[in-house]
Amino acid sequence: MIAALIAIFVVGYLFIAGEHILSVNKASIAIIMCGLLWAVYAVCADDPLISTDMVEALGDTCEIVVFLIGAMTIVELIDRYGGFRFIVDNIKAPNKRTLMWLLSFISFFLSAILDNMTTTIIMVMMLRKLLSEQKERWLFASVIVLSANAGGAWSPIGDITTIMLWMKNYVTSVNLIINLLIPSVISVIVPLIIASTMVKPGPLETVVDPGYRTGYDLYVNNRKLSLIILICGVAGLLFVPVFKALTHLAPYIGILLSLGILWVITEIIVKKHHLDGKMDGRISGIIHHIDMDTIIFFLGILMAVAALSQAGILNSLAMWLNETFHNPYMINGIIGILSSIVDNVPLVAACMDMYPVVDATVVEASLDPVYTSYFLQDGLFWHLLTFCAGVGGSMLIIGSAAGVVAMGIEKIPFGWYMKRISLLALSGYLAGMAFIWLETFFLEL
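The structure corresponding to this sequence follows.
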């Protein structure tokens, strides 16, 4: 049974990793893999509680899925009302090197509020307004990918992996920001210094329209409304960590509350400004345009990992890693490299099942209390996992949603990225890990 489960998972992973080559949507593979894993486990294992286990796993997974639906709807709402145009139209730079640094840091902080994929779409589409030479856009787009991935690593709502860890109380929002902001900045600055030397000096020129939505443009016709939705949407996203800290309720409750308030606001706006027939400005219409492929993928892959956990495979893997390496930097360093090949979501989900959060009592009773303390809430292991899984995905163009999106928009070749960007991403990855190690070393003295 174990061999069959591992084989199904590995084959499914290969299909997911090769999505751009095979032209098979990874969401379809994820749900097939999920169904096969649970079916094989149900047939082969003598587990009378399998239905209960499945319901529990589905409940945990749906908390994340509901959160994502709410967050993605808010982001789509801001975009539909032209809110992101304020960012795009106010980017000014005297030359291309300055532009690269500016775009990088906008992507870094924007990704912390939105997500790396949405941020990359916005910023890469904007490049078409600023740069005409294709290979130059490839370089800029690649830097945006690095920045967007690093930006999501230090924010509790910046990436699906951080959302997962934060929602399940492996990390807390304040400690995550305090511990990972500087390493994430370093992971961007190091490759950015190198990449900026590759940019030909020269002034900027407006070349072509970036290709925003056609039809009624609210940003042009009523910029004030666009700004209101931008402010309300961002406030709604930032409200979620505050809500969780105050109420100790699951974050999906906070995002649903924010979405409900925005729903009322947009209904009033549509009616007052007579937007019906001009644009699809109601939440009820906007929600149909969110990326449901991504939602289904997360549902399938998280449930697939839950099946492996239920079969005891992940616990065995955790024991092997502990016995072989027994070092959080080595374990997470490997996970970060793997995340550039396969999706970081199942990797993090697997680690969450492999290594449960411990409390002070477990640490005191442990034969190795120092190592065990790394698995406390906000322990070193979880911060390293968040950083490595997020930043490590930048080492290959297919290693993150941001990279795949940039690859699709600008037709960036896999080989070109590996030749010119992979080592830059690795340098930032290692520099960030080195900072975390030094910081931990001096704090433990």
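The chain has 24 helices and no strands.
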